[in-house]
Every structure is written in C-alpha cells, then in structure tokens.
Amino acid sequence: MQLLFIDYTKQIIKTYKEKRDAGLLSPLMMQLTTASIRQECIHVYNKRIEEERPGEENTLNSFFGVPPMGRPFAQHIKKYPRDKFRPLQNLIKGEIKNPMLINVELFAWLIDFNPRPFSNAQKKLEITDETVKPIEPTKPIEPIKPIIPTIPTPITPTEPEQVDDTKEKKRTQDGIIMGTGNSSPVKPYDISKTPGENDEGVLKNNPKDKFKKKLKVAALASIIPFLIGGALVIIDPFSSGCMYWNGDRYETVRCDEDPKGRIFLPLDKKMQRNFERITRKDTLTTWSINRMYYVSDKNKIEYFTAPGPYPKDLKRNVRKLTQLIFDNDSINRRQSANDSLVAKK
Asked: pTM of this prediction?
C-alpha cells in the first residue's frame, strides 16, 4: 500500500523520539526551542558540507528561501527569524494536525531521517500495521427473544340453569348476561376457534407478527450506518489526497491520477482555502500593504492572499507587500495604461 504523507510524518516523529531517548541527537535537540532548532540547523549544514554530503538545496531553499547574493547559507540561516521555526516545535508536540510539507521535510533533514524527501520515501516505504489502526469488527446484534403468550383454555359450555324470572337473568354458554327481561337468543360460544381469532380464523395481535416487525427494525438499524458511511465516501473521496496549482488556486486531485505535467502536493486544506492569486490588481489599496503577499517573476509582480511557497517555483516563498513595491507597481501600471491610450490614438 502506497505511503501517505500523514504516515511519512508519523515515521519522522517516531524516529526523532527514538533517537532522542537513545541519546543519539545533539543536546540542542533534546529540549526543542525555536533558538535551539535554528542553531542546530547551522551545525548540521556545516557538518554536511565538511562530510561532502549533498546539501539538499531543494529542501533548504523551500524553507529558508534563496539567500541574497554573496551571503553564505549558514549566515542566511542565522539571520532567519526564530518564529519561523515554531511550526517544527509544535509538530513534535502534536499540536499540528495538517503540517506543511516544507516543515516536515526540514525536520527530516535535521534529524537525518531516511529515506527522504517524501517523493523518495513513497518508493521505498510501505504502510505497516503500526501506522494503520485495524478496524474493529462491529458487535453483532443479539436476536430478540420472541414473546410467547399464554393462550387461555377455552371455556367449556355449560347447560343453562333455571333462574327466577323476577331477577331477569339468563345464563348462556357465553356466561351470565344481565338483561331487562329481553328473551332474545344469544349467539352461542364457538369452541372451534382459539380465543383472539377473527372470523377467518386468523389470530389477532399475533406475537409472531410482532417479532417479525421487531426483526425488520433491527436489521434496518444495522444497515443504516453502512449506508451513511458509503455516502460519506462518495461525498468526500479526497479526504487524504493531493492538490495541484491551476494557475489561480489549489485544486484537489487523486494522488494516483495521471499528473499530465502538473505537480502534485500533499493535500493542505488550510493552504487550499486561503492561498489564491489576486487576478485584479486594481482591487489592491494601501490597506493591502503588509496584509497581501507578492513575488517578482520575470519583471512582473504577482499578488497572493496568503503566505507560502511560490507555486511556479517551490524553492521561493512569496513575501509581504511593502509600501515601496506597492507604489512602484502602481506607477508602472498607470504608465502602461497611458502608453496604451496613446498607442490607440
């Protein structure tokens, strides 16, 4: 069974705890703080360079971004804000349910977890019984015990007795009937029927019919959860899937679908919900400064609604919109509009 991103993350956390308990990690990694994580990143980077091991530039650039021209990468890490390491700290505490790929990959690099990255781990690791919790069997429904009623013994008809006319009573085969002197005959008791039967000989309020009804209700109650479960699967088939960038936003897709040139990322519902490209630049105002994000690509400014990796180049991150970028881009747009009007005239 193909390894899922959530299982890949669990394996990394498990490996960290095993190395920590065995004393195989640096003292900086024993009690994680944002400062200790940043300092350990510098140590690990320098150590890997001395050992002439691959620097895994894709992982480092995705998290730290590309350093300015001429700045050593270790110095770039040292200048990186400490708050940016808080997601790694919360990842180990179990406070993040849907961690971002760049955070998980950096932590895997930090503790030297193998195989990595996630795309490589999918080819070599499989889900084990420890990562997949077995589904407990449904407790069977105990059969309902039928209630067998006690059928009264038929009354044996007796001979009518001679009674005093002054009391105006008449005894029949059905019992004693109080009257007012009316001597009309009473229908005799039919001993060929069981008490409770109708004229066709069918037993009224048959306990067997009640038992069948209860059995049908119990069977229906046992089927409904399976029907609801199937409906949920149909409604949300991508609860643990992938996503890709369609040019304006991230869309959900099956991980096993043909990419057709698209880049599939592990599904991040928060990123999918918040991260979009702003297609109408005229909606940007001074309110957008420090609230919206931008990236410069081929001398063109693109704007986005949330922080994260630049979808066209995951090694880069979008940045907060500054007053300088906003003013310069506004001037350029107005100049382009004027040039277009002059060209039309």
From this structure: 0.38
